Amino acid sequence: MKVEDFDLLAKTVKERSGLVLSKDKAYLLETRLMPVARKHGLKGLEELCDHVRRRNETLVGDITEAMTTNESLFFRDNKPFDQFKSAVLPGLMKARESQKRVRIWSAACSSGQEPYSLSMLVKEEGAKLSDWRFDILATDISMEMINKAKAGIYTQFEVQRGLPITLLIKYFKQNGDKWILDSAIRSMVQFKPFNLLESLGGLGTFDVVFCRNVLIYFDQETKGKVLDGIANQLADDGVLYLGGAETVLGITDRFAPVPGYRGMYQKKGGKPAVVPAST
Asked: Which residue from 91, 205, 273, 275 puts its CA 20 to 30 A from 260's CA?
């Protein structure tokens, strides 16, 4: 691939999604964008780049979609979900006892495994939360992923990754080689296309935000803007979850780690509605 073509594609993807592509990721461009070129009847990446220069917006949208489609799995890394059940839910139930409403945002939700994992956890609490309202918003830049998530249909491979067999039997029905998620679980999640580079103001205020394994793809400036935007939408006693390889240190002073809980962050000066970790 020509250097100028790589630079053009990398710049286009960063402007549209925040994703930073280093030169050692040229293979990723070729792997993911050749199908896009074929879809548009183009011979290869060189011709694709010519059309990008002509500001073919449909093509640019497909390029962004292809480069930002990432995999996910149910109950990824387990620990955040264990913490959510044992520390966050009890803390929020105490803090929100009068309104009995909790808002959760799953940012960059991919094909829906994260928000559906959360809705299953809530459902498993049964009678304890029967008169509570849980609003789970799940967003992703990829319309393809949003549509897949809404359908709630997963392959055998996908349900084998992280999903406990008890929950598979309880909340899924098998149809041939696919597994269909129960409509009651699907209805607990609202899916919406959203770009994290846009203003977050229209999303409203959240008690819990999951923004895991997303910031690693952004540069420092973009990370800071996204985190500051989340801070503006997070309740003063809310919590933010980041991925295991992500941190707020050196990026923003709006957040600090929640003592005793790895990967969980609180707003600076705030007191999160979380059961304190045992020492």
From this structure: 205
Residue 132's alpha-carbon distances to 34, 43, 99, 125, 152, in angstroms, are 48, 55, 8, 11, 24
* pLDDT level of residue 65 (50, 70, 90 thresholds): confident
Tens digits of per-residue pLDDT, 85-132?
Answer: 999 999 999 999 999 999 999 999 999 999 999 999 999 998 888 899
Q: Give the sign of the dihedral formed by CA 54, CA 58, CA 60, CA 66.
A: negative
pLDDT at residue 69, rounded to an integer: 65
The reported pLDDT for the residue numbered 92 is: 95
What are the residues whose beta carbons fall under 8 Å from the beta carbon of 237, sequence distance 6 or more? 95, 207, 270, 271, 272, 273
Q: How far is CA 168 from the centre of its chain?
A: 22
Q: Which amino acid is at 190?
A: Q
**DSSP assignment letter at 277:** P
User: Does residue 70 register a pLDDT over 80?
Assistant: no
Q: What CATH class does 79-267 carry? A: alpha beta
Which residue(s) pair with 103 in the sheet? Answer: 135
Sheet (strand 133-140) strand order: 189-193, 133-140, 101-106, 206-210, 234-241, 264-267, 255-257
Q: The domain 3-68: what is its CATH number?
A: 1.10.155
Domain definitions of the chain by residue range: 3-68, 79-267
How many residues are given for the chain?
A: 279
